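Working notes for the structural subgroup meeting. M.R. asked for a predicted model of this chain before we commit to crystallization trials. I am recording the input and output together here so anyone reviewing the notebook later can reproduce the run.

Input as submitted:
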Amino acid sequence: MKNMLRRLNQALPELILGILIYGVLVEAIGVWFVSDRIRYTIGLLCGLGCAIFMAVHIALVIEHAVHGGGQPRILAAKSVLRYLVVTVVLVVMMVTKIGGLIPAFIGILGLKVSAYAQPLLHKQLFHNLPEEEITQEDEEVKQ
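Returned structure, recorded in token form:
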């Protein structure tokens, strides 16, 4: 799975890992400050799921744009579709009251936090590897 994600985009596995780490931290901190812990957790999980969906979808659209020669209209439609899916998830959560909207939004923000933290996470994950191993791993992924 990791190699599949890495073939799609070199930074995608680390981006998803960052989203998951963010989710664990927000859950561990936030669960102490809310009265309805189950709705908080469900909302946060829905938001994190949306963030991961958005990260993978953005990588797919970029891959299609770069290698598939995607037309600007199609790329714009895919971007709008991505936000429509997230909006539908939030509306369903609001109507069914299955999870909290604020925790879901906080979970969706995990994509942004992870994107900003990804270079730091990359540095922490690969700081012990010699440069040859990093280059060799990159070559294996390209094949």
